[in-house]
Amino acid sequence: MDFLEEIFLTQQDIAETIKKLGGEITRDYQGKDLLLVSILKGSIIFLADLMKEIKLNNCEVEFMYVSSYVGTKNSGGKVNVLKDLNTDIKGYDVLIVEDILESGYTLNHVTNMLKSRNPKSLKICTFLDKPQARKVPIEADYVGKVIPDKFVIGYGMDYNEKYRNLPFVGVLDGKYK
Ligand code: PRP
Asked: CATH number of 17-147: 3.30.300.30, 3.40.50.300, 3.90.550.10, 3.40.50.2020?
């Protein structure tokens, strides 16, 4: 795979990380009305794997389609909500499910939107956290892995919409950007 600088997380690393997150969420949301809000498109594979590790009956899932990148790797801070939720989240214990937290613009926008709709609680679960890229002060409640400031692809994450289908997380080689 000459387009990769390195494989950052193998399928096994990912499976272990998700098992751990699923266990924490299962423990913390006992007896609650959990609504997972998946932020499309990047979180699709993470959501699918994570929800299988959440061993609760009271678990629902909804989707928002939010986009902040304009084709390339630099987030401009402008967040577009391309598809909003279909349901009223009032009374739900909402857990936002994201693939990656970088500048924080996306999750800042989404949490402000959702808070105003009066959920019972609102928390964030992100598969990857890149704190060095943060532009607004926002932190996730559940973090799979903290990563350095590298451009990662695969496992739902793209470069110009490509590479989302890789089953692992890799770092794209500079000459392909
Ligand atoms: C990516 C990623 C997060 C966001 C993180 O989404 O999936 O939602 O950027 O970056 P931030 O913390 O700097 O806002 P993107 O807007 O590329 O859309 P996608 O999920 O469809 O790839």
From this structure: 3.40.50.2020
> What pTM did the predictor assign?
0.94
Report how far ligand 1's centroid is from the alpha carbon of 2 (Å).
Answer: 25
Cβ pair 137, 151 in contact under 8 A? no
Residue among 90, 98, 84, 135 at smallest CA distance from 115 = 90
pLDDT at position 76: 61
Residue minimizing CA distance to atom 17 of ligand 1: 69
pLDDT in tens, 59-75: 999 999 998 855 445 55
